[in-house]
Write a structure and sequence with these properties.
- The structure is a homodimer.
- In chain A, 59% of the residues lie in helices and 3% in strands.
- By secondary structure, chain A is mainly alpha-helical.
- Chain A folds into 2 domains: 69 residues, Multidrug-efflux Transporter Regulator, Chain: A, Domain 2 (Orthogonal Bundle), CATH 1.10.1660; 65 residues.
- Chain A has a two-stranded antiparallel sheet with strand order 1-2.
- In chain A, a hairpin with a 5-residue loop joins strand 1 and strand 2.
- The longest helix of chain A is centred in the middle third of the chain and has 34 residues.
- The first copy, chain A, binds a DNA duplex through helix 2.
DNA sequence: TCTTGAAGCTATAGCAGCTAGAGACATTAA
DNA sequence: TTAATGTCTCTAGCTGCTATAGCTTCAAGA
């Protein structure tokens, strides 16, 4: 049995975050020791690893909740899990494209700014003038 | 003079967000009409466009606050603005790398899942088992 | 065995960056 | 003139944590 601290170390999820996941029902309520401290078994560790990994891959806690409920009853077609993964993939591809444009823009900004006064510096200008933008159609989602 | 609605349309920043920016001091308090409605001039529009664009490029509101204060007194060397842009560039490059790894992983997941039962489906498995991961060192920051 | 320091507990509040709702007043087009 | 739309303030909510305070429990060394 693991204490919350050991679980934290072995999954890379911070202690308050583990308690938070329990609080919002993503992890079941942990067993307690005589002194009221949480105790975790291997199953809990695996579930948390699952959550951690899914978070790293960009899944929202809600999507993870869905995936977990799928994996809790594994005798169905996996099309639902697949759909979630596909949706994530589309989202990720879009983020990638926007970030690539963003990178080009920032590189241009940095190159053009080499020690002049701000009045001559295009960092500010580029940020103020949308028409100078390399990417024509950055949408609102680009904000994330 | 523009109403808040027109300003919203012409910048692509939502009305409540504009009010929020005023509230946190990113935009100065707007003039008011006789009927107490906010009115904006060209300068306000430009400032908001600046903010919008910077947000799209991934700058935090704090970084934007700094940039704005720089652009408000333009008679200094622009090294500070440059430093902010450079820091953003590094951050963006790191995000790009992580997203690329993530994309590969999701593609693998989607390919392997073609209508089987969940018990045979690797979407869940891949998410649970870190050792199956293509990226060996996804850090905690990958969560964003 | 005692002690001390780390680790755990609960509860509450805070963070960024918005977004949504309620209920009242202002403006505009037909 | 009337109806629809826009705007106002205020408050509360959202996601996904993170931090603080003040307490208890545990483990290891002297």
């Amino acid at each position: 049995m693991l204490t919350i601290g050991k679980l934290s170390v072995s999954t890379g999820v911070k202690v308050p975050t583990i308690r938070y996941y329990e609080q919002i029902g993503l992890l079941p309520e942990a067993e307690r020791s005589a002194g009221n401290q949480r105790l975790y078994d291997r199953k809990a560790l695996e579930r948390l690893a699952f959550i951690r990994h899914a978070r790293e891959l960009g899944f929202s806690l809600e999507a993870i909740r869905d995936l977990l409920s799928l994996s809790d009853n594994p005798d169905q077609p996996c099309s639902a899990a697949d759909a979630i993964a596909r949706a994530q993939l589309i989202e990720v591809e879009s983020r990638l494209a926007r970030l690539a444009a963003l990178k080009a823009e920032l590189e241009r900004m940095v190159v053009q700014c080499d020690g002049n006064r701000i009045a001559d510096c295009r960092v500010i200008e580029v940020l103020g003038d949308h028409s100078l933008c390399i990417t024509d159609h950055v949408t609102e989602d680009a904000i994330h």
